[in-house]
Amino acid sequence: MSRLDNYEVLNQLKYIDGITIIDNKGTILFTIKFNPIFHSEIREREEILGESLFTVFPSLNEKSSTLLNSLKTGRPIFKGKQEIVDFMGRKIETTNISLPIRAHGKIIGAIELSKERSKEDSISNNAIEINSEMFRGDKRLLESIRPERAKYTLKDIITDNEQMKNLKRLTEKTAKGNSPVFIYGETGTGKELFAQSLHNASNRAEKPFIAQNCAAIPEALIESILFGTIKGSFTGAENNPGLFEIAEGGTIFLDEINSMPIHLQSKLLRVLQDGYIRRLGDRNIRKVNVRIITASNKRPEDCVKDKDMRLDLYYRLCVMTLNIPPLRERINDIKPLLDFFISKYNVLLHKNITNVSKEVYDFLLRYNWPGNVRELEHIVEFAINQIDEWEDTLQMKDIEDRVKNFIKHSEEEFQIEPLKDAVARLEKIMIEKAINKTKNNVSQAAKLLEIPRQTLQNKIRLYEIVPKS
Ligand SMILES: Nc1ncnc2c1ncn2[C@@H]1O[C@H](COP(=O)(O)OP(=O)(O)OP(=O)(O)O)[C@@H](O)[C@H]1O
Ligand SMILES: [Mg+2]
Question: Average pLDDT in the 8-36 region?
Fold first, then answer.
């Protein structure tokens, strides 16, 4: 390992969540996990000491365990990626540093420091990580790039809503083909979830899934990142594959496609039409076999109208469109999602919430969910974080701080009052508007409001409306 590589790994690890030590037979000698997410898949610590690594983690094998690999090869493994399965059958991915332990010239065991790879790490940001590594032009780093696997499947999409169930069925059917798919949905509705699930439901599932957010990289780099470079094409450029080549045989997910510069959209069109890419500065073209999924939280028609997307690209990309409805239009999903997130954070944060007060539930049904499912998850995470251990019911006081603005707003607008007062208030607002619009001309205002002039005069007096000068 060069010093640069070590630096890269340490830089990426930043902190650790657990330590495990095994002897040369793979028996666990010591383990400590600082991150509650691990607690679900290991039993009591004492219980697993002296057990074989494979008994405790049935999902691991000699190949996939970085600890075992380090033991067998006698070499340190940095940045190894490992998947373990927790008690709910969910995958947890870790980044590990595994080192052999040597005594008197013999390898007597291995030690591993691990960090859980959060969703955020392994979803789109990973591609950016790959890109930034690519751009250092370091060959060894490039060789170490192993594209992420998509972790979500259709089963992870929780819903009780008919429209969503249809969408899942459509996704499953669409997955079997190769045509491009466009996913539209407001922020936090689950576009990435659908993109990964589609990949996993396709026969490309064993191949790479590469996600790239087009808005997250500087315009000048997008082309080289997507299509690659050849040595000398610009200062410092190396022979590097782009994401399309890295995704060979698999799926590329281009998020926020409407942020892709128009001139690059025509290059994308070429891949879509003939399946060829050209690395930056290359005279040759290369054949690629990659399925393209794109997403945007702006409607595709609006992208075209606002000239964010070429019309020809629109026709190509939107062969299949998945429209994910916002959460406020599927309120029967609130209950199952709420239950799911409560169990998730109960486990993660060692709480025991089993009920939700009627008040909270009614509120959640009324809420307008600007951040959709992600927002619901954040509200639950926030509440369970600060709730006391002995509490078993989620109450309004637990979520109030998170949703204060909405409550204030909705109370102002919707508080129940005698109907005649509410009507009078609206009447006053309308008259003021009409008077202002007509610059204090009562006859014209009366026409706009479609009432006799005298009636308007009476009401102006009644409501004490003072014309603005
Ligand atoms: N139906 C669902 N069941 C379970 N989890 C969901 C569901 N929909 C969304 N989520 C969760 O909500 C979060 C947001 O989902 P995701 O990142 O896929 O949204 P997005 O549409 O890509 O958002 P953005 O436009 O902001 O990128 C994720 O943590 C995801 O796992
Ligand atoms: Mg997304």
Answer: 73
